[in-house]
Amino acid sequence: MSIKPTKHAQKSMKRAQEQGWVIVAASDEDMICRCPSRGCGLKARFKFGDNIPSCDPALNRDTSSIPIGSFSDLRKVLRSRREELRLSINDTEEIAGLSVDHIAKMEKDRPDRIPNLDTIIHWANALGLEITLRPTEMTPFALRRLQETRHLAERRGRRISQLRRRGPSSSGRGGQHREE
Fold first, then answer.
1. Other C-beta atoms within 10 Å of 69: how many?
2. Which of 124, 20, 27 is nearest to 71 (CA)?
3. Could you tell me if 12 and 31 are in contact, meaning their C-beta atoms sit under 8 angstroms apart?
4. Nearest-angstrom CA–CA distance, 75 and 12
5. What does the pLDDT look like over 32-84, one tens digit per residue?
């Protein structure tokens, strides 16, 4: 059974985030927050209703990333974060707006279902995480294919331009257009 936080507690938690803190845990009376700055180990306990000072005034946010190579990696990170926050699976599902037992099935060591991207984003956001894509090294296969298809690059560029001018739903075969 989850206890619904009071409006006073909700306001305090919102204020802590506005002031730059990352909420690590919360009880009925207070919350534990940490500084998001790289290399800073500062943690603070605030009682709901306390004046909450600004944290990380230079906005030097922790931009560390966790490489994810598979759904299994992602599942472990999300489960670990949920446990770190001391949230139950039901609480996390409610926060994320997911149906009952949805996360429980995905958190299993041998999940029988892999969620769609929208579900993963809601699950991560419910735990105070964001999904970010950044450039990385391409696989040898991708590099080889890129090199092998350079003779098609100009024609593909014209086709992409035509499709963009027509709008988002004009890509033909559900966005799976093949041109070779």
1. 7
2. 124
3. yes
4. 30
5. 888 877 667 778 889 988 888 887 655 555 566 788 888 888 999 999 989 88
97 pLDDT band, cuts 50/70/90, is: very high
**Whole-number Å distance between alpha carbons of 162 and 167:** 9
Question: Using CA atoms, how far apart are residues 76 and 20, in angstroms rounded to an integer?
Answer: 26
Contact 54, 37 (CB under 8 A): no
Question: Tokens standing for 15?
Answer: 């204020």
Residue 39: both structure tokens together: 């290399």
- Please give the order of strands across the beta sheet that includes 43-47: 22-26, 30-34, 43-47
What band does 132 get if pLDDT is binned at 50, 70 and 90?
Answer: confident
Contact criterion met (CB below 8 Å) for 24 and 32: yes
**Residue pointed to by tokens 């499709």:** 163
Q: CA 154 to CA 160: how far, in whole Å?
A: 10
35 contacts 42 by C-beta, under 8 angstroms: yes
